[in-house]
Description:
Elements: E1 21-23, E2 33-35, E3 39-41, E4 51-53, E5 65-72, E6 80-89, E7 95-101, E8 108-114, E9 117-127, E10 137-144, E11 153-163
Antiparallel strand pairs: 1-11, 2-5, 3-4, 4-11, 5-10, 6-9, 6-11, 7-8, 7-10
Amino acid sequence: GYSPDNPVEASARTLNNPLPFVENFEGSMANWNITGPWGADTGDAHGGSYSLADSPGGLYANSVDGWAQTAVDLSGSRWPVLKFWDRYAIAVGDWAVVEVSTDSSGWTRIYGWSDQTETNWTERVIDLSPWRTEPNLRIRFRLWSDSSANDSGWNVDDISVSEHAAVAQGYPFREGFDGGLT
């Protein structure tokens, strides 16, 4: 089982967390199915003492494909949004992605990168409205590596899935779309 000193947990349970879903990794890993070395990392957290990491306390290995997966019940939601904070160092040829699935066999990539480093904690906000009626949307954070270089990997913290909260814009409103459609 999970403990801060033994952060590895694996099982085949089906998870179906109601909205709002919030995970800060300060307690157990009961909301997660883990494959590979994923677990709680005490060396790097956005908030609190723990974050989720693909290789807690060290470099990720070569030729691995592992993930941390949870699921949420989006039935009845109108505009669900996945939010999380992350930082990473991913070597050339390796990938870190967030994927979703309605059936655990077909996965859709909704976020990811390869060959990059981001040393600062950065908040990510991902629209889940295409799956707003799904009663059991699986969400997984996945890292896979090739057989050559490796790096310190991916830390994720303060994950939430909740309804989008509209932000009121002041008057006069001006938008040049220079920063994207956020």
